[in-house]
Amino acid sequence: MLAAVAVAQNAEDPLSCLELKDVPVPEAAPGWTRVRVRASSLNMHDVWTLRGVGHDPANIPIILGCDVAGVTDDGREVIVYPVIADPDAGAGDETLDPNRALLSERHDGGFAEYIVVPDRCVVDKPAHLSFEEAACLPVAWSTAYRMLFSQARITAGDRVLVQGAGGGVAGAAIALAAAAGATVYATSRTAQKRRLALELGAHAAFAPGERLPHRVDAVIETVGEATWAHSLRCLRPGGAIVIAGTTSGTAPAADLGRIFYQQLRILGSTGSTRHETVAMLRMLEATGLRPRIDRVLPLARIHEGLRALIDGDAAGKIVVAIP
Ligand SMILES: NC(=O)c1ccc[n+]([C@@H]2O[C@H](COP(=O)([O-])OP(=O)(O)OC[C@H]3O[C@@H](n4cnc5c(N)ncnc54)[C@H](OP(=O)(O)O)[C@@H]3O)[C@@H](O)[C@H]2O)c1
Question: Enoyl reductase (ER) domain spans which residues (predicted)?
Fold first, then answer.
């Protein structure tokens, strides 16, 4: 079968480390399910792996792709919950299992015609979503759901700032927070993506660093260094920043004085539990929300999609479809 395989890691030229190869179709071991991949979406995580960030070189080569929608050998239309972990080892929360792995970290991922995953990772695909739409959800939308509802615990009427509206997680956070009755402010570097933020449900959109009309209860942060100071300044006393990513860098000035004096809460967030993914799918069904797709490409053009992600040239998720 055709697969996109990370064969090396290079911080300057990550795309040269991804090869399209013919590899054997995987067999499902007992307790595992084989899924014929119909669509898989791209995430910054794929780029980090190719750059050698947060990915053990001992696990190269590996098939990339952590977002999968497809069909099991026995004909079920499914999405794949992408965290391979033991809930018991995380005191009931599999994202807290010290040995957890996102798909494509230690197990082959979804940029391929077939994938095998633990039975518990298989979740029924909502019938109203296409495979392309469903493939946008497991990583970006589940991460955003956990950030908003389990970490920040936003409620209707809260004010929420989402930094970097053009991103996959950020776009999902805008849509979910607005649907939950929050007032949503968003920032983005381009006018086009600020317009996109408004289409997704933001009440107002700003250039990075701009003053907001009001301080906010929560900030959804995945940009990191470039927006951190603004995120801290925008919070009301006692407000929370939930951080799940650092696309622009990991080491901003901490501004500790502001954090203790304003009693700010800084919450890290990674992935989602299976339960949160299922709840997010139910929320989409209840609200009619759908992920916004920037473009759909064949697997053979995956380098082009990853290039657009690196260049910040995507307004919505980029999907690889495997007919
Ligand atoms: N912890 C987790 O479980 C988890 C899950 C998913 C993703 N992540 C991480 O979260 C981050 C976002 O992931 P994604 O897949 O949503 O990425 P993405 O779709 O590629 O989005 C990239 C984002 O970065 C912003 N950005 C990039 N460089 C910037 C800069 N110099 N200044 C300001 N904004 C900048 C873009 O904002 P504009 O609108 O301004 O272009 C956009 O929001 C990544 O670092 C990823 O690894 C973590």
Answer: 13-320
For the 141-268 domain, the top CATH level (class) is: alpha beta
According to the CATH classification, is domain 2-136+291-321 in 3.40.50.2300? Answer: no
Say if residues 203 and 178 touch (Cβ distance below 8 Å): yes
| Nearest protein CA to atom 35 of ligand 1, as residue | 223
Kindly state the tokens that stand for 134.
């469903």
pLDDT tens, residue by residue, 177-201: 999 999 999 999 999 999 999 999 9
CA–CA separation, 10 and 139 (whole Å): 24
| Tens-place pLDDT, residues 162-176 | 999 999 999 999 999
Contact present, 104 and 138 (Cβ < 8 Å):
no
Residue to mutate (ligand 1; options 223, 292, 295; most atoms within 8 A of CB): 223
Position in ligand 1 atom list of the atom nearest CA 193: 39
Which of 151, 169, 272, when mutated, tests ligand 1's pocket best, judged by the most ligand atoms within 8 Å of its CB? 169
From the list 153, 148, 78, 149, the residue with the least C-alpha distance to 117 is: 78
